[in-house]
Amino acid sequence: MISRDLDVLIGPIVECEAGYTVEQLGQLCAADAAIILELAEEGILPASPGAAREWRFSGEALRRARVALRLQRDLELNLAGVALALDLLDEIAALRRRLGIDP
Amino acid sequence: MEFKDYYKIMGVARDATEAGIKQAYRKLARKYHPDVSKEKDAEARFKELGEAYEVLRNPEKRAAYDQLGTGHRAGEPFRPPPDWGAGFEFSGAGAGGYSDFFEALFGQAARGAGGRARRGFAGGRGEDHHAKVLLDLEATLGGGTRAIGLRVPEVDADGRLQVAERTLNVQIPKGILPGQTIRLAGQGTRVHGGEAGDLYVEVEFSPHRLYRVEGRDLLIALPVAPWEAALGATVQTPTPGGKVDLKIPAGSHAGTKLRLKGRGIPASPPGDLYVELTIALPPATNDAARAAYRALETAAPFDPRANLGS
Prior knowledge:
The complex is a heterodimer.
Chain A: E1 8-9, H1 22-29, H2 33-41, H3 59-74, H4 79-99
Helix pairs in contact in A: 1-2, 3-4
Chain B: H1 6-10, H2 18-32, H3 42-56, H4 59-71, E1 89-91, H5 100-106, E2 129-135, H6 138-142, E3 144-155, E4 161-172, E5 181-184, E6 199-205, E7 211-214, E8 217-224, H7 226-231, E9 233-237, E10 244-248, E11 257-260, E12 273-279, H8 287-299
Parallel strand pairs in B: 2-6, 8-12
Antiparallel strand pairs in B: 1-2, 3-4, 5-6, 7-8, 9-10, 11-12
Helix pairs in contact in B: 2-3
């Protein structure tokens, strides 16, 4: 049901955009830029090459950052533990796809 | 409103120590964390667990809860708050959906553990808001505009928390996936002489009559007759884009999954549609059908329970 007296708002899908800076990624994850920087330095977030100040992140990096922060908070993992968990989750997903079990 | 047994949820005794509670939480959190778990109801279980831990880890909350648990029956002394649920808008992050029971017991102030509200400063940028909405699956399959009702908590002049209703017409981007977020520029907190914050709307889909959503893929259960599965057949199946002919290979069985590439959610790249076969049995309601079943029993003897062992 659409309200006739209101304008239609249009906005982008955050996860499909690219070129996020460290600060923007922090804002989207409600985390400090310093924490995002730590995740990137640990190799958890794929970043464009170059110096940390010029790093740009994709929507996939945003997804990974959110998962990483949730794992860190909920399971009290350290950065290395988070990185390991994410790598293993990726590997499990790839194996499941190859086996054709559960999409 | 339902009384929640936090001790039962965490699987600990009422006299469990703080260490015991922490240990139980860690173990269950690893099992049910929605980012890790493949359990079906992981998200709901994890939410419940987080709520239970939030209460039992904190001596004051635990004491308040214990008093309640021994003295009263389900919900009696509470005044249930107005229908909370999906469509709740909040600022700052970390406000996880606690149950009505929790809200009633500890109030809104207890919300947002770990959340950090971003205050807009004079002349600066207004706060960003976050909201979760439940949409019909058709919204992403075809795109289109939906009216989204949001509840915005606001503190009134007396410092009391009020909930304001707000409706927005939002164009849903075709192919948006569950868990993805639409950014609506300037729909957050407005500040005098500064730039308004943004509203982030996270999208989830309500259960669909035909399709189950798995990320970008869709899954449909398609009933076939025993002979269609055994001998192979071409049957029609619904897809989001309309009915298509689907070839069922001979020797299929219940649970066989057939993939229709690119016929899932039209994201980029598009998801697939998985057709999972179920076998529907024709009823034996007349002599001919009963005779046919008997004939099959003789012609193709088999033990459906052969794998169960003796």
